[in-house]
Design a protein that fits this description.
- By secondary structure, the chain is an alpha+beta fold.
- The chain contains 24 helices and 10 strands.
- The strands form 2 sheets. It has an 8-stranded mixed β-sheet with strand order 1-8-7-2-3-6-5-4. A two-stranded parallel sheet has the order 9-10.
- It is elongated and about 80 Å long.
- Bound molecules: adenosine-5'-triphosphate (ATP) and magnesium ion.
């Protein structure tokens, strides 16, 4: 298979945009006699003049050989083995993914794949997927031509087997091989195709949209955590609003969020749509400003209206607020038999953001201090702000919470003093607090940031 070689300067990007860690890793691999190249999204983004989200390295060294070269590395992944390599002085979460060239299990004839699969098949069923191969085989396994470029940062050469550079220049998302077969092989590529189209503003090659619309149902067969990860990537990479429109231009939107699809058909909740759109726009501007975004906030936004409906129904039946909340969370996030399985950690944060809405609105004198010191306060406050933008919350309430955060002790005492006398009995208040804390005792302790 013939490759074309292009100088980076000819493509208009310069070496200084490349992470020094990935450069050092490639140098090290080469000094041990292995190949080392950057691949995929980072090469695409460099050519487009965008800042790459991450730098992925590929090599012909096998995972254990990579680990021998880099002592601060570990093999992860069951389906595919990937090596996370950390450079000296880096924090635990700062690593570069290094992957061995892989081949398609069906098409591979390479000697490496035969040895590996023979010796490993017996040990671990997941190893059936780790079929190693040559670079020529590796390129054919990739999803789209725009993601199929390799870059040698030492020689400063881009290696293009499949016309990826031309597709980037012509802004075209093109599947490598037959779209029908490649989507069937891995339906996550359907979601990825929509993501790249939205994120890069590209168009689909001929017939691809048709394939996606016809076979969206295949996504149903994906492992739930992989599906969740691919879906959430649609909304945390700076093109959330465009991704939303993309998925709703295919049956995928309705599959993932059936309550939205039925709602827009009935055209009965225009405010909910405005609410979601505003959140998506805020997310995009946060990403543009380099601010963190959390999955839970997006989930809290998308399921807020069904939650509210359910809450009102249960309160109407005479349930206490907290019980009604508990059941509604469960109805909206847990018992949904739809495609998107929301992980436990995300569900709990959403639960807290929602419950805190009641507390923020109520402004009970005795709760203020604990609300302000709650680790979910920031996300809950951002959520309140978002609600106020669609007229769900009185602006005086939002203003009060904004002011109290900045108040000096004197003003703080005055603001609390101005609040009406608490109506809740101390024992009732204590009971709810206890239930609340017991329930969330297992959640992680990281401080979330909202999207507003
Ligand atoms: P991003 O900018 O979002 O990171 P990316 O193209 O780098 O985009 P990754 O998910 O980081 O996407 O994957 C890295 C590379 O691995 C891709 O560019 C592609 O070559 C390959 N890849 C990822 N997922 C698949 C898949 N499902 N099928 C085939 N190739 C894939
Ligand atoms: Mg990437």
């Amino acid at each position: 298979m013939e490759a074309e070689y292009h100088c980076s300067s000819e493509l208009g990007f310069d070496q200084s945009d490349i992470s020094s860690d990935s450069f050092a890793i490639i140098q090290n691999l080469k000094s041990h006699g292995y190949e080392g190249l950057l691949v995929g999204g980072c090469v695409r983004d460099l050519i487009l003049g965008l800042k790459p989200k991450d730098f992925d390295v590929v090599t012909d060294a096998l995972p254990h050989q990579i680990c021998n070269i880099f002592p601060r590395s570990r093999i992860i992944g069951r389906r595919f083995k990937i090596v996370h390599v950390r450079q000296r002085g880096r924090r635990y979460l700062e690593y570069i993914e290094v992957t061995t060239y892989r081949a398609n299990p069906e098409s591979s004839n390479s000697w490496v794949s035969k040895i590996i699969s023979k010796s490993r098949k017996k040990r671990n069923r997941f190893d059936g997927e780790n079929i190693y191969g040559t670079r020529e085989e590796d390129v054919m396994r990739r999803d789209f031509t725009i993601n199929s470029l390799y870059y040698d940062p030492i020689e400063e050469k881009v290696i293009d087997y499949l016309g990826g550079i031309q597709d980037i220049q012509q802004q075209c998302v093109r599947v490598i091989g037959n779209p029908h077969q490649r989507f069937l092989e891995d339906p996550a590529r359907i979601i990825r195709a929509l993501r790249f189209k939205a994120k890069l503003g590209f168009h689909f090659e001929h017939e691809m949209k048709e394939e996606i619309v016809q076979h969206t149902a295949w996504v149903d067969g994906l492992n739930s955590s992989r599906l969740y990860d691919e879906v959430l990537k649609l909304f945390n990479q700076g093109a959330a609003e465009r991704s939303w429109d993309q998925i709703f231009s295919t049956p995928l939107g309705g599959m993932l969020f059936p309550h939205i699809a039925s709602q827009s058909k009935a055209n009965n909740d225009e405010r909910h749509m405005r609410f979601i759109r505003q959140a998506l726009r805020n997310t995009d501007s946060r990403v543009r400003d380099g601010l963190p975004v959390i999955d839970s906030f997006f989930i809290a936004v998308v399921f807020w209206y069904p939650y509210k409906k359910s809450l009102l129904r249960h309160i109407g039946k005479g349930l206490e607020n907290y019980d009604a909340h508990d059941i509604s969370v469960s109805e909206c996030l847990v018992k949904r038999a739809d495609l998107l399985m929301i992980p436990f950690r995300v569900r709990n944060i959403v639960d807290q953001i929602w419950w805190m809405q009641t507390m923020l609105e109520r402004r009970d004198k005795r709760d203020i201090r604990s609300i302000l010191s709650d680790r979910r306060f920031r996300a809950a406050y951002d959520f309140l702000l978002l609600r106020s933008t669609v007229g769900e919350i009185e602006s005086s309430c939002v203003k009060w919470w904004t002011e109290i955060q900045e108040a000096n002790p004197k003003k703080y005492a005055y603001m609390i003093d101005q609040l009406p006398k608490s109506k809740k009995s101390r024992s009732k208040q204590h009971q709810i607090k206890k239930r609340f804390h017991r329930k969330y005792a297992r959640t992680n302790t990281t401080q979330p940031q909202g999207m507003v």
